[in-house]
């Protein structure tokens, strides 16, 4: 097999492993990821794992980054599709993030909201990449903020909004749709938009 074809095949297998790991992360959390299960789900042999990753921890580090980039790209794509409605970028972001669909999602969505409670107790490498996902979420919010909304009483507005959104999703998931979860999402969305969304819709 030509070298380029082997490399392409190896990359495809690598992506399948990362996709399978991301699904397990969302479904079972960091502690619930098993190498044998990941390889089986990816349709590969257990013995082939070390041709791609030096350790389970190395797999988790790359998978969290992979899942986070994929989640942010999907969110950005949905925001672009809604951007012609005349609403502010911040309103679009808050409504998409604090949505029933995001709350109900078990195999997709923001990695910070999905794994935040486990990130601080993980290995150094996993904490580092997790911190990067937190910063990426804050950066996404910062890009959506209207002019003049950079700080609020000395606090960084993007950080406050990102933390509120991620915490709201976590609490809503604990309560569930019919037990007050949706109420949390609606209350937090209304509060954030009232405080930070100074956009006037285009006529």
Record keyword descriptors for this entry.
single chain; 203 residues; mainly alpha; Tetracycline Repressor, domain 2; two-stranded antiparallel sheet; 2 strands; 68% helix; 2% strand; elongated
Helix and strand run:
HHHHHHHEEHH
CATH superfamily: Tetracycline Repressor, domain 2
Q: Could you name the ranges where pLDDT drops below 50 across 5 or more consecutive residues? A: none
In total, how many domains does the architecture comprise?
A: 1
Q: Mean pLDDT, rounded to whole units?
A: 88
Outline: elongated
What share of residues are in beta strands? under 5%
Write out the strand line-up for the largest beta sheet, numbering strands in chain order: 1-2
| CATH class division | Mainly Alpha
- CA(first)-CA(last) distance: 60 Å
Q: What is the CATH topology?
A: Tetracycline Repressor, domain 2
| CATH architecture label name | Orthogonal Bundle
Q: Over all CA atoms, what is the radius of gyration?
A: 19 Å
Approximately how much helix is present in the residues? Answer: 55-70%
Total helical segments: 9
Number of DSSP E strands: 2
- By secondary-structure content and strand pairing, the structural class works out as mainly alpha
Largest sheet: 2 strands, antiparallel
């Amino acid at each position: 097999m030509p070298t380029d074809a082997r490399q392409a095949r190896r990359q495809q297998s690598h992506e399948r492993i990362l996709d399978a790991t991301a699904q397990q992360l969302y479904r079972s959390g960091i502690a619930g990821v098993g190498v044998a299960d990941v390889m089986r789900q990816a349709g590969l042999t257990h013995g082939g794992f070390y041709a791609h990753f030096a350790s389970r921890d190395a797999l988790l580090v790359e998978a969290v980054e992979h899942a986070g980039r994929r989640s942010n790209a999907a969110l950005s794509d949905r925001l672009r599709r809604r951007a012609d409605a005349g609403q502010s970028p911040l309103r679009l972001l808050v409504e998409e993030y604090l949505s029933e669909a995001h709350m109900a999602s078990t195999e997709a969505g923001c990695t910070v909201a999905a794994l935040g409670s486990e990130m601080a107790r993980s290995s150094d490498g996993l904490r580092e990449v997790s911190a990067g996902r937190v910063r990426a979420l804050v950066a996404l919010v910062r890009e959506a903020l209207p002019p003049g909304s950079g700080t609020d009483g000395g606090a960084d507005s993007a950080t406050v909004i990102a933390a509120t959104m991620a915490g709201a999703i976590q609490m809503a998931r604990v309560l569930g749709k019919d037990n007050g979860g949706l109420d949390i999402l609606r209350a937090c969305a209304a509060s954030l938009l009232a405080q930070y969304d100074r956009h006037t819709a285009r006529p």
